[in-house]
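[Q] Does anyone have a clean C-alpha cell version of this?
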Amino acid sequence: MAKKAKDDTIINVDEVYTKTEQFVDKNRTVLWNSFIGIVLTILFAAAYKIGIYDYSNQLAETAIFPAEHYLSKDSIDLAQYGDGYSAGLEEIMNGQFENDEMWVHSLNIFGTHAESRAAYMVGIVNRDAGLFEEAIESFKQVDLNDDIIMPFALAGIGDCYTDLGRLEEAEPYFEDAASSADAGLAAKVIAPNFHYKRALVLIELGRSSEAKDVLYHIITDHPNSKLNKTAEALHASL
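[A] Here you go.
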C-alpha cells in the first residue's frame, strides 16, 4: 500500500511501521494461538489441582487404608500385595489400584501423599526382608516434596547402602536425610538420629574430622536429644 506526498515521492507505509507492529501483523494467527494455548494450560493446571488431583488423592487414601491395617497386624504379604479385594501397597505405590472411578487413573496420576506413604512402607518391608536393592527403588519413589516422609526415605536408602557395605553411597543419603529433617517441623525429634548415623559412617570411612563436626552439631543444636550424651562421648573419643 502506498500514497503520494506533495513532492510526488512514493512513501511505503510498511516503512512507517515499527518492527514490532510488522511482526504482529505477520504472525497474528500464531500469536493468538499461543495466547489461547497459555490460557488453556493455566486453566487445565487449575482444574487438575482442584478437581482431578485432589479427587485422585482421596481415592488413594481410601485404597491404602486396608493395606495399612494389614501392615499394623504384621500381615506383610496381604499388606504388600493385597487380599484379592483391596489393593496392596505395591499397586498403590505405582498408582495402579482399582476403584469405581478408573477414568481418573487412566490419566496416570502419581505423586499423592498416599502413594508416597505406600512407597515408603514397601521400602521398609523390602529392607527388613534383606531385599536392599528393591527397597532402595521403593524409597526413591517417595515424593521429594513430601517433607514428612522424605527424610525417613532418604535415611532408608542410607541404611540399605550401609547393609550392602557401600558406605560411600550411604553417607550422602544420611546427610540429605539430616538436612531435610532439620528443615522440618519435627527437627529436634528425628534429625539427631540421621546426623548420628552419618557420623558413624564417616568414622568407618576414616573421615573422623567430618564426623566430629556432625557430632558437635548434635551436641550444640540438639541438646535435648536422647543421643546428645552418646554424641558427646563419641566426639570426645575421636
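[Q] Thanks! Anything notable?
[A] The chain has two domains: 16-135, 147-238.
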